[in-house]
Design brief:
Rossmann fold; six-stranded parallel beta sheet; alpha/beta; 6 strands
Length: 144
């Protein structure tokens, strides 16, 4: 069913499942709190590095993964590549402090469906999750 929006694929009575991946517990907590405004969404798990993100994705099968770019052991871009190859039903949004020309292209090449700067998360993260869960890209906060 590739190409169909995630919203159509998921069961009507099942919340959108989100995995939050960041090596900083306070960032994971802030993202979880930000997403809690949506009663039709569920943060189904957390991970602290890229390898754990892959394992949690295998275990939990989230619809959306919010992935930090800079983490120990395996960075977010490399983890995104592996998740994109192994679990094509999960959509990744890169969440990063790094802002540089080519960021959006780098995220796309890794297989991410979106990218949001951490400094703009309060403004754009919920919108990014909405868009990527519907199989639409969302890249903001950096030059395309």
């Amino acid at each position: 069913m590739a190409g169909q929006p995630m919203i159509e694929q998921q069961e009507a009575d099942r919340p959108l499942r989100i995995l939050v991946v960041d090596d900083q517990p306070n960032v994971r907590r802030a993202v979880r709190n930000l997403l809690a405004s949506r009663t039709d969404w569920e943060v189904c798990g957390e991970a602290a590095d890229g390898w754990e993100a892959i394992e949690r994705t295998k275990e939990l099968r989230p619809d959306v993964i919010i992935m930090d770019m800079s983490m120990p052991r395996l960075n977010g871009l490399d983890a995104t590549r592996r998740i994109h190859d192994q679990f094509p039903g999960s959509h990744v949004v890169i969440l990063t402090f790094h802002d540089f020309p080519g960021l959006a292209q780098l995220a796309r090449e890794a297989g991410a469906h979106g990218c949001v700067l951490k400094g703009h998360a309060n403004e754009f993260l919920v919108q990014a999750v909405e868009r990527v869960s519907g199989s639409q890209p969302f890249f903001c906060g950096s030059p395309a």
